[in-house]
Every structure is written in C-alpha cells, then in structure tokens.
Amino acid sequence: MRQGDPVLQTWSDVRYAVRRLSSSPGFVLAAVLTVALGVGLNAGVFSVLNGAVLRDLPVPGADALVDAYQSVYDVPSRVEKGARNARFTTAELETYRSRSDALAGVMGYSLPWPAALGGDAPREITGRYVTCNYFDVLRQPPAMGRSLTADDCRPGSGTVVVLSHAFWSAAYAADPSVVGRAITMNGQSVTVIGIAAADAYQPGLRRLDYYVPITAQPILRPDRQWLASTETGWLELLGRRRDGSTIAQVRAELGVIAADLDRAEPGRRTAIFVERAKPITFRGLGNAPPAGKIAAAVFGLVLLIACANVANLLLARGVTRAGEIAVRRALGASRGRIVRQLLTEALIVAGVGGVVGSVLAVVSTGGLLRLLLSSSPLALPAIALDVRVLSFALVLSFATGIACGLAPALHVSRPDLHAAAKLGVPGTGRRGDGWLRNLLIGAQTAVCTVLLIGAGLLLRGLYATHTVDPGFPYRSVTYVPFELRGFGYGADDIAAFHRALAERVGTLPGVEGVGFAADVPLEGSNMSVNVRVPGSSRAWQIAERNFVTPGYFSAAGIPLVLGRTFTEAEQQDTSTAVIVTESTARNLWPDGNPIGRTLARRVGADGEALSEVVGVARDAQVAVIGETPPYYVYQPASAQTRHQLQLVVRGSGDAAVLAAGIRGVVQRLDPRIPAQATPIAENLADWQRLAALVTALSLVGGALALALAAVGIYGVVTFVVARRSHEMGVRIALGAQSGCLLRLILGQTMRPVAAGAAVGVLAAAASSQLLTSVLFGVSPLDPVGIAGAVAFLFAVALLASLPAARRALRVDPLAAIRYE
C-alpha cells in the first residue's frame, strides 16, 4: 500500500494510539470505566425497550403478524370498551376476516376482563375473550389438552376455557386432571379443555389466567351485550399475512373494506391503520410505566456526564502533550491529521468502554426489568442480547467517542508553538485555554443538578407518602369490590343484596361504620362532572364526583362539618341533593354558608341539572396522595349507579379478622361471589411502592452522576494546580497568604460549578412535569428540595476541590524563583 493510502494511515493511527494509551494505564482505566458505566446503563434500558416494544412477538413466524386498528368518526352511538377509538365490533371483525385475501388468518381478542372463579375459596381472575382461531393464528399449540376450535364458537356449544400455564400451576398445582374438569366462572359451569403453553404470548404483555371464546361473553357477563352489539368496539384485531403479501397490500385491502362499511352506514368515516405486530405498540408508549420513562431520562443524563468527564480527561491529557503536538506541527503534520490521531485514541477508549458496558448491560438487564415491572400487571418479556442491542451499544460507543474526543482534539491541535516549544513546561499554555474545561465542568454540574433536584424531590415525596395525613382514618377502613351483574343481579336485586350485606356486616365485632361508594379512597380512579353556580359569570369547573350511600361518610371516617348526610329517600335517580367538600364550598361560595345553595351540574353537551347542597364534608385526599381536590361533589347512589358500588367498612381491631368476617357474610348471602377485602392502607402502600421504586432509580442515577461530577472536578482542579504550580510558588515567594491562594484556586473552580448549577435549576424547573405523576405531597418546584440539592452539590464540589488546592500551597517557592 502507498504511504498516502487512507487504510494505511488509519492503521498507523491505531497502532500509535494503542502505544500512547498503553503508556497511560491510569487514564485508560478511568476513561474506559466512565464510558462503560454510561453506555452499559443505557444499553440495559434499551434492552428492556427492545424486548417490550421493538422485537417481534415471541411466536413462530412473527414477522408475518400485523396489528390492525381503526378510528371511526361521526357515529354518535359508537361505544368503545377501554376508551380508545381503535377496536372492532364483532360484526366488523367478521367482515374483515371473511373478505381479506392478503391475510391468511384474522383473530380478535378483548381487553383483559375479571371473572369470579368459584369453589371453596372464590377469587377474582383475569383473562380475555378470544376468537376460536386465536391460538391457530399465533401458531401456539397448548401444553396439555386441546386448543379452541370453530365448534367452540358455535351457538349452543358448551362454554369452555383454556387456562394459562402460570395460573394452572399456581391455582391447581399443575394437576393434569384439571383438563376435562368443570369449574365455575361467574356462577356458570365452564369446562377446562386445555392448558396454554408456558411461553404462550399474552397480548400487551398482560398477565392472563384464562382464555374463553367470544361466544361465552353473554353467558359469563349477561349484563353486557358486546358480542351482538353493532355499536360497541371491544375486540383487537391481529392478522397473519399470507405468503407473498406485504403490509402495504394488507393496509390497502383493509382500507377498501373500511370504505365499504362507511358506504353501508351513511355519515360514518373510518380510518384503518396497519403495522407490524409488536409486544407493545408505540401507540401504547404514552401509558408506559413512569418508572421506565424516568429511568431512561436519568441514565441518559448519566451518559452525558460520562461524556463530559471523558472529554475533560482527554482535554487535560491533550494539553500535557502540547509540546509533542507542536513538534509534529513544526515537522509538517497537518491539523487534520493530528485531530484524526487524537480522535482515534478517543474512539479506542470509547470502543473498549462500549464492550465492557455491553457486558454490564447483559448482566444488569434482567434485574433492571424486574425492578421496573415489579408492581406492574405486565408479564415479563424474554430479554436477550440480540443484534439490535449490540448495534445500539456499538453506535452509542462510537457516538460517545466522537462526542468525548472531537472538541478536545480540535482544541489541543492548535497549540501556541512558541510557548509549547519551552520543553513542554506546564503552565505555558495560551491565555484563556481553560474555557473548554470550564464549559465541560459547567455542563456536568448542570446535568448533575437536574438529577440531584429530581432525586431530592422524590425522596421528600417518598417521605410524604409515609407521613401523610389524608384527612380520614385510613388505617381502620377496609373495602370490598363487587360485580353483581355478572351473576344475574338486576338493579332491585343489587339494592336488596346491599341492604342485607350492610345489616349483617354492621353486627360484626368492632365495626363502627358501613357504607357503599363507587370510588373508594386512594384507589386511583375517579369520575368527574362539570359544575358551577347558576347565574354566576364564572366558567364551568371540573369537579371530581362520587356516588355514595348515607352511611359512607361514617364508614370512611370523613365527617360532615356542616349540614347532613343523605337520606334513604334520596337514593333515587331523580334526587337533587348533593354534598360538597370544604374546598368546593370555599371556591364556589366564598361569601357564606353553602347549605341550601343551588349547584348546577352539566348534563350532555349543553344541558344542566340543578342540585341542592345539603352538607359539607371535610376535605380529604381521596384520589391522589398529597392532593386535595379543589372541587369534589358527592351524589346519592341510585338505581343507575348501584352496580358500581363497593362496600366500605370502618372497624377497630385486627384487619385480617374483619376481612374474614366480611367474607363469611358474603358467602352466606351468595357463595358464588368472591369477596376480596382490602384495607385502604394497601392502596396507600401501592403509592408508596411506586414512589420508592422511582426514588431508588433516581437516587442511583443521582449518586452516579454526583460521583462522576466529583471525579471530573477533582481532575480539573488537579490539572489546573499542576499547570499553575510555578505561579503559585512565585506568589508564595512574594508574600501571598495561603488563604488568599486557596480562595483564588477555589474561586476559579467554583465559578463554572455555580454557572452550571444555575442552568441546572432552570432545566429542572422546565422538566418538572415528568415527576408530577410520581411525586406525592411535594411540589415539583419545592424550594426546600431545590435548595438542598444545590447546597449538597456545592459541598461535594468543594470537597473534591480541596485536596488538589491544598497541594498548591505546598509548592517550593525557591524552586519556582529559580525557574523564573
């Protein structure tokens, strides 16, 4: 090869870079470990994303599977189960299935729905209604028994069920005799025909207990008419492409079918969407666990700090080589060649760090995934190191090398030849050559400030969840959810069951109050209604709403501060009585007593209903910890809302004993109905677990960022002191006091730290919205948390600077004078 051959030059650069790096093992170790930490953590997060979103479904022939969804417009009667205009009615699914030539198979499945499993200990289980070709399209034969067939979906056929492998193992101890046995679901006899494979795909990665044919819907849930409805979209569509067909062909064909459906229903407009099937589609990423989003943000910022740290290391190392670079320039080397040489060294360091980081990612991914989804209903996907993850780590390492090495290479490749010719003596650089180091330190500090503020706020929020007073005695309150309509109960039957249940539970030892509510405190769900004062110029306000019985306030321990509770006669659809909270009363009627005042509730698009305020309840954090709703309205439960009610009981003594007593009462009233009594304190524990998880992730990221920033600051101060050692000696010889010199060095160091902290505070304020979903009882702009994080950062920066700064005070002034 010719001397000017790019390949030869590159190989020469690599060999020279290896020789130079091998002479600085300490630098190489620090830089490689820093890059490995940043790349490895981010590759681990990407592995989780890859397994849950990017990879194909874990089924045979997954590349041929497509996910189709639709948006139906201008059909006022359209109803969507799951509040997303994307699902299909039974008739629509059958139309697409029968008319599609590009798809060899089309199957449908519902959202996960609960069912009551009967037996000696009734319990609630979760599964899906599926078309009978569900397992055929997925090409997943059962582990035992048989799969669903077309005969199972014919009218009049017996109701059958396929159990998931995990549920069969847990509930029936993997007993093979379960296949062929009849079990009771929602009071109906159902025959177990098979056990799904242990690795059977569960759409949306949701944990499932059972699969039943869609034709079982009116049998297991006679209160619903989804199967026969032409207006209720309740089925997801997944298809398998025929050999030779493309996704574009499938999209075009389904679009033609959708247009025909529109013509058959004047005024309807349908948009059809088709994409390659994935475990979780990008449409669902908006509902991703907040811990996952925060983990990705935190570890991405750690990578930025790692890049800045390595850049500072390279910059410091490059400046010490100013003499060498000056000689090479003097001998005719171009600046571009020198930049390429220095960049080659950075890329080698980043490449080795990327390899180490990939190993770290493989080791940590499983634990990271379990941590992120530990309290989630998602089933853990099979995570493995594949080409995507390796490619991501490679690209990330390459980008890190360029980001870390380019700016230092450009900076040190243009030395002052005259100054550098002084035998490479430290302290002979150009005036102002520290601006890049200061910029990098400032950037590190800014990112570290964001992470520390976030971690500090989350830590305060976690403390708040353990010390919060929600405004009612939640430790003594228990609730029991019911779904009676699935057992054939009508409105009158539900009312009678509730009366009998309240009477019998009220006689249990230690019970102090019994009531019913549609939403129980701290469950995380809430309804809303628009309210205003009639005749007022104020706009409609969104208020949270709950339907309750007269005994609810005593049962929940939420006292009335004014007025009265509801009467039994007001438990009617036509009732106009409402009870508001203290905050609602202050906001709507700041001028006086709200009792007897009129409240307008919006009904439909333009209508309104007038209600009379009969009571004012004490404010309580009933929906979200740390947040008292500004507007909250209680309405009496009526025939229309009875089916939504859950039992609420307040009692003294052991919660487990109370729960057992409630279950016994329910079993005596109707042995088919599962009664899962849950203390309200467990609802609070769910908030605490989420807060603890996100706080732990943020603290880990913040600690790593702080450590990296401290190392970076220490390295820069050490370098600055070494560069200015002769200057310090001269100053000491001329009578400078140690305190003055210390302030000089620390002042030079802390200026970029202060600037970075200021930028970090502004960035943290701008990004505070990310924390609102997991921050309880603390404002995202909490001044105590922000001030504490900044003060802690300054303390660490000061401690990192002091050792090197103190070394400058021990310079021999005689040696400095002799040099000068």
Task: Reconstruct the topology from this structure.
Elements: H1 6-22, H2 25-54, E1 65-73, E2 79-80, H3 90-99, E3 103-109, E4 113-117, E5 123-130, H4 134-138, E6 144-145, E7 160-163, H5 165-172, E8 182-185, E9 188-195, E10 210-213, H6 217-220, E11 232-233, E12 236-241, H7 247-264, E13 269-276, H8 290-320, H9 322-330, H10 335-372, H11 387-412, H12 417-420, H13 435-467, E14 477-480, H14 491-506, E15 511-517, E16 527-532, E17 541-548, H15 552-556, E18 560-563, E19 577-581, H16 582-588, E20 598-603, E21 607-617, E22 632-636, E23 646-651, H17 655-669, E24 678-679, H18 680-723, H19 725-733, H20 738-766, H21 783-808, H22 813-819
Parallel strand pairs: 2-11, 5-10, 7-9, 17-22, 19-21
Antiparallel strand pairs: 1-12, 1-13, 3-12, 4-5, 6-9, 7-10, 8-9, 14-23, 14-24, 15-23, 16-17, 16-20, 18-21, 19-22, 20-21
